[in-house]
Structures are given as structure tokens and as C-alpha cells.
Amino acid sequence: MAMAAILTSCGVNPPTIDGPLPSLTTQFDCLPAETAIISAHRGTARGSDYAENALRGLSALIEKGYLMSEVDVARLKDGTYILFHDGVWEEDSTGRGAVAATTWEQAEKYLLNNPQGKLTSETPVKFKDYLSAAQNRIYLEIDFKSSARYEDVIKMIREKDMGAHVILIAYSAGQARKLMELAPEMWVSVSTSKASDIRTYKKGKAAAWVGKKISDQGLVRDLQDLGTPILGSMGKDWSAQKAASADVLVTDYAFNHRPITGLTSKTKYEYEACLDKRRY
Predict the structure, then answer these.
(1) Domain coordinates of the chain in residue numbers?
(2) What are the tens digits of pLDDT across the range 161-180?
(3) I want to staple 34 with a disulfide (CB 3.0 to 4.6 A). Which of 157, 244, 253, 264 is the partner?
(4) What is the distance between the alpha carbons of residues 196 and 111, in angstroms, rounded to a whole number?
(5) Residues 6 or more apart from 125 whose CB is under 8 A from it?
């Protein structure tokens, strides 16, 4: 991965990863305690020219050395899976009407807006094409829109051999259990307000989504005691406390933060040594 040193938050850039992308489990095991992986919300960053959930944004993330992109998967009327956040086209594209009532023949002609609401030359991307572009280069958080079928999305991830490189997002306990049943090899992000929420999951790989509660140090300590990966949210400004509390921080302002927030020269060496050890 190319590592561009153009970022403003505290720390150094992560090491270049040569060869196969390590599993997320390896990342969680090797990530230094005071750091967190930055995940670009909707695959872009506010203030950039890159449309949400589109290929140019993904390319920019990879080129700048980011390790994770959060994306939204929706199903069209003809069964095509694309990336798009909203249920209707109007606000973020030149399209009109419900996304789920659209065919790919229609959708591929629409143009997308950037985060500032300005029209771009980008068009919606098929999920399978985004997976191909991301494969062995970046981790993905997968947010299921209501039109998306879990089984179909999981099948497509497996076809690209990316099960070890994704986090599936669940918003309820029932959804989390269903995803863990369908994809026990994949990490599932579970909305968490107390450590006992995580203890209820006996099967699968549960990561704790705490959102803005990443500042709740009691909750963070309880989850860390369980050995549970922690996912939180971050705004524009740097926060050493949040970096130390989380394994992943999702943000609308990815380009305001380094790919691994809080990494220092010393911890980078230790992190790189751990990744190398786990590789062989």
C-alpha cells in the first residue's frame, strides 16, 4: 500500500503491508493498545470530492494507506447488489424514486454527488466490483440496507475469499445472531451499551459497537477485560483517549486522521513485528 504523509492527527503512518492482507483477527491481536484503525464512513471523507460508496473514494483510501472502509449494500429490483446509503436516489444522485424499485440498467446511468452535495462524474458501483477492488487491499465494514439479503451478501464475500477481512454490521441482537449463524467465520459488529450484551453471544465473533459511548471508560474497561474488539465513532478532531479505547473508529472525517490513529514510531515497530510473526 502507498502511504501518503499528508495527514494531520497525532502519530505516524502504519507499515506497508506486503503480500496477503492479514486477517482482522490478527489486526485486533497486534494493534497497539493506544491506537485505533480509522474506518471511512460510507467509503469517503467530508471535504473531499469523492462520492459516497464509490470506487474513486476506495482508490483514494487505498492510495493514502487507510485500512478500512465502511459501506452500505442495497439490492435493486433486478437482484443486482450495489452500494448506496439512502432508500431513495434524490438527495445524493441524479436518480429519482426508490432504490429498491430501480434496475441496474437505470442505476448505472445516474451520477452521484460528493459529500458537499456537488455533482460528480461517478456512477453507482456494483457490490461485487467494489469487493474486487478492495480484495487483499483494505478491510470492509458491511452495512446492510433493508433491501439486502444476508445470504446473498455473505455468498458474494465468500466468493472473493474475503470472510477474514470484513465486519458485518448488526443493529439488533436478533440480526447479530442471524449473521453469526450464517457467517461464523466473519466478525459481526453488535450494538453494545454494557459488557453483558456481548456475553450473550456464545457463537460467532462478536465485536462491540459503542458509538459515542467510546468515552465511557467503565464500559471500555469491561469490554477490554472480555477481550472484545471495540468499535466507536470519532469526529474531525484528534482524540488520544478515543484511540486508546477503541480498535476501530468510524468517522466522516477520515482524511483528518492517520490510517491508524495514535501509532508512534515505537509502537509501529512492535505492531509490525507482531504482524510478521503471525504471518509465518
Answers:
(1) 37-279
(2) 999 999 999 999 999 999 99
(3) 244
(4) 45
(5) 53, 54, 55, 82, 83
